[in-house]
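Reading a protein record of the kind used here takes only a little practice. Each token is a code from a learned vocabulary of local backbone shapes. With that in mind, consider the following protein and its fold in token form:
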Amino acid sequence: MTGPYAYSVSQLAKAWGVSDRTVYTLVASGQIGHLRIGKTIRVRQADRDAYEAAAWNAPAVPPPAPPAVTHAFSVSAPTGRVSPNSAFRKGQKSARAR
């Protein structure tokens, strides 16, 4: 374990980069487990981990890529000519052979 066993409100607020008031609000609303001894509040590492896991919003899974578009013939990009080995050229050759 890298952090302390239990955090004070100020320690937890600093670790999250939020105000103490934000942590007090989470405690008061019961959204995060805590231990209260008199006026002192402590949040265990396990309670912090549980809250973070429940509150974490993972990015949505991106939609699958569209299928590759296939053409009946291929055109070479620089010249704009139809490739001699393309299906289009093969079709022309077979039509001439008839």
